[in-house]
Amino acid sequence: MILSSSHNHVGHDHAHHDHHGHDHGHDHEAAPSRPWKRIGIAAVLVLFATATACLVQVRSGEATVITRFGNPARVLLQPGLAWRLPIPFESAVPVDLRLRTTSSGLQDVGTRDGLRIIVQAYVAWQVQGDNANVQRFMRAVQNQPDEAARQIRTFLGSALETSASGFDLSSLVNTDADKVQIADFEDHVRQQIAKQLLDTYGVRVLQVGIERLTLPAVTLNATVERMRAERETIATERTAEGKRQAAEIRSAAERDARILQADATVKAADVEAQSRVEAAQIYGKAYAGSPELYNLLRSLDTLGTIVNSGTRLVLRTDAAPFRALVDGPPQLPAPAGASAGAKP
């Protein structure tokens, strides 16, 4: 009984020992597996975060400058995703490449003829989209468009002053549109600033335009006087032209009148000559038919020519042509037929 009891006790202890051994084996297999899973998940998260930190997105209308410890290293121009080293090794700085406009404000400038004008211009500009000019813009103004606009206004004001000195006021303000050279003035200003802005700031100038152009009181008075003088000059020229044309018309009319008068004189002379010929013929016929009657008529014609209502003459009355007044008409011979008829 004692042995049996001992055996059972020993068996119980053995069973108990086996039970503990089984539990210990289970704990030994489960403990190592859980840390490795956690480490794997953490590694995946770290890799994902690192990959995300190394990705940079380049948007349309922008360039992205990758700086390495604050210094520009390279420029990304194509829209999309690109790689970079994580911060603090490399950083991504976006640079706006869109079109911008900057106004000069009102500027008091002098023209070539010594007059003052007040002009306001604008400039349309954008950062040139290439590696060198984007980096130049970054270094010049630290990627601050407002600072770039401020410095561009300074360049524009100086260019307005320089360009205005090459133009007369009449070529900028004039009632005759053909004489206005605003487009040439704008082009001159653009040429003054385009190369400087590109070389200094990496900025490309697309357009320069005049927004406003006004005249101070002194210049306005001088302009009005100049315009009045121009109007008076034009009026004088037109008056002179009208007088010249009138003189030409008058001369042509007088020439035509002289020609007509000469033609009429010639025709009158021809008519007169023809009438004299005809009169001579008539006189000849009259003289041939009755010489006494002819002499009487000629004497009367002569008296009608030399004697008028205010003429007083003392002449012999028995001399021609006054003889006709004393003697009367001559006795004309009777026709032969009438004498023959009287005899019976």
CATH superfamily of the domain at 97-215: Band 7 domain
- The span between the termini is 246 Å
Main beta sheet strand tally, sense and closure: 4 strands, antiparallel
State which percent range the strand residues make up. 15-25%
Tell me, what's the shape?
Answer: rod-shaped
Radius of gyration: 64 Å
Helix content: 55-70%
The ordered H/E elements are HEEEEEEEEHHHEHHHH
CATH class group of the domain at 97-215: Alpha Beta
Pairing-aware structural class of the strands and helices?
alpha+beta
CATH topology-level fold name of the domain at 97-215? Tetrahydropterin Synthase, Chain A
- Overall number of strands: 9
> Residue-averaged pLDDT, rounded?
78
Parts with pLDDT < 50 across at least 5 consecutive residues:
1-31, 338-344
What's the tally of helices?
8
GO molecular function: peptidase activity
Keywords: Hydrolase, Membrane, Protease, Transmembrane, Transmembrane helix
Region (Disordered): 1-32
Main location: membrane
Structural notes for this entry:
The chain is α+β, with helices and mostly antiparallel strands. It has eight helices and nine strands. The strands form three sheets. Strands 6, 7, 8 and 9 form a four-stranded antiparallel sheet that branches. A three-stranded antiparallel sheet has the order 3-2-5, with helices on one face.
